Amino acid sequence: MIGRFPILDISPVVNFGGEYVGAKAIPNESINVGATIIREGHDGFTAFVVLLDQKGKESSRIQMREIWPKSSRFEAPIKASSVGIWHFYIEVIAKNPGEFAKDLVSQSERFPIYVERERALVGSWYEFFPRSEGAIKNSDGSITSGTFATAAKRIPAVAEMGFDVLYIPPIHPIGYSHRKGKNNSLEALPSDPGVPWGIGNESGGHDAVNPELGTMKDFEEFLKVARKNKIEVALDLALQCSPDHPWVKTNPEWFTKRADGSIAYAENPPKKYQDIYPINFDNDYPGLFAEIYRVVTFWIEKGVSIFRVDNPHTKPVHFWQELIAKVNTKYPEVIFLSEAFTVPPMMHSLGKAGFQQSYTYFTWRTTKQELIEYGTEVAHHTSAFFRPNFWVNTPDILPFHLQSGNPAIFAMRAVLAATMTPSWGMYAGYELYEHIPIAEGKEEYRDSEKYEIKVRDWDGAEKKGLTLAPFISTLNRIRRENPALQRLRNLHFHNTDSDQILAYSKREGKNLILVVVNLDGLHARETMVHWDLWALGLDELGLSPDSFQVTDLLDGSNYAWSKDTFVRLDPARPNGRVAHIALVKTK
Question: Which of 58, 73, 197, 546 is deepest in the core (most CB within 10 A)?
Answer without folding.
Answer: 197
